[in-house]
Known about the structure:
Distance between the termini: 66 Å
Strand content: under 5%
Number of strands: 3
Shape: elongated
Largest sheet: 3 strands, mixed
Order of helices and strands: HHHHHHHHHHHHHHHHHEHHEE
Oligomer: single chain
Strand order of the largest sheet: 1-3-2
Amino acid sequence: MNNNTKKINVASDIIFDKFTFLFALLGTILANGEIIFNKIAWHDETMLVYSGWKIPLEHGRWLNFLFIKFLENFAGAESLSVPNGIIVGLCIGAMSCMIFYLFGIYNKYIRAALIFVFISIPVVAANFGYMSWSGMNFIGLLLCVVSLFIIARTLDKSCTGKKMLIGFLAASVIAGCAVGQYQCFVTFYITLLLTYLIKLCIDRDMKGKSFAAIFIYFILSVAAALVFYLIVLKIFLAANHAELSDYAGISSYGKGSVADYLARIQFSYLGFVQPSATEYATMFPFHWNGWHIILLILIAAISIYYFVQILRRKKVGKFIQLLICLAVFPLAINLNFVLYGSGLEKDYHFVHALHMYQMIMLFVLPFLFLCNADMKSQMESDKKKVQYFFKTMLIAMTAFTFIMGGLYVRYDNFCYMESEVRQEKAIAYFTTLRARVESVEGYDPSMTVYFMNQIHKENNVDEVTANYDYPATFPFDFMIINSNYWYEYMDLWTGWRPPMGDESVYVNDPREQVMPAYPADGSIQILDGNVVVKFN
């Protein structure tokens, strides 16, 4: 069966498809419109308003630095939610066109189902939670797909010698730039390359040496991208007299023990089969694990049936090659867990949805077999059975993908709704706090205010909205009033920015220790001409 689920026409050879591009662009805006067209402030949003565009070189993100410099000169330091939403839609549209072309997916129903996931998988919501960075991050993801597209062209039979070298170098530079936007994008690039290798294994009857050569070629392309990234990073650090910080362990990558890395790899494979709602980037949050299992069952059924068929046709080499690729696939999907920490160390608060857009390839993978597998059989009766199986699985997989897209859209908009509720509650909380402080007898606006236990405020601002799950996607899963930039948030939304003192001044003061916690009476007092507010 050579794509017998669709009718290939001339348009199938065209990279840019209007339906794909426009559906992705408009779908992104419509599905995420609640946050694109409404200003919802989170930690990074507030930070950028007050601190300006912080130079991200200490985080190793030099392309991000270039984007920021550009925006400083042309757009200022404001969060441009609508332009960023449009940029994200444009990037997803361009990525979709190239992905469908590279992986031989031409059927419009399948494309629509996959786009539904591409525009709504919680990675997109997480990026819109960091609205100021969302457009730049998706440009980085787009660069990964562009790099894969160039690599794929270098593997054409007509591309040899000098052209192949130029293509390899160009792809490495582009992928290196993507890593320069956000280091975690290297895992998206690796997953793309591995998935394309699966496509090559399906399309070609490669000998072992050819398979090994392409495998090594892909490894070298990743290595070259990382080398380019590091060289440019060194140049930018030196030029700006900056050093890498230890944020997310950036300055200590690769320093773990062998046992530690083995534990990380083990956790990545276990997490692929049974993801945790709190440590697996929440692609399948809470009770959604059942949907994840259904997806794995569909993928297993399709791939196993395909394996049986190629073994019956005595294509052992193809079987071994695909088996190797599929064995590595879970590790590629979860490679960030290997890079950032182990399950034993519980470092996964840095591995959240922003890092996991490669999960879209988990939905693309089964369609590789369904749309590209050549299942011709020597027996006509066998051929009909095989075609019937693949047609049935195609319908099931397409329907499942549509369902997941709908669930993702609902979940994303729940996160947006919850964030709006939290924002209003936080504004009310700080407005009340200001009124309480200003009503204390003897208060003067020039007084220094000491907020004790300021990031441990006990309150009901972040209670779960009735009849809904608690949002599990970062940053929608953490409290506004207890974020590191709560003080700036308070000023931004209530106009109150009193002189704030270091809470260590009163931390051991007997008078402060007997004070009740806010909002109880007596939780705000004037001590030594200063205002002391005790939380928790």
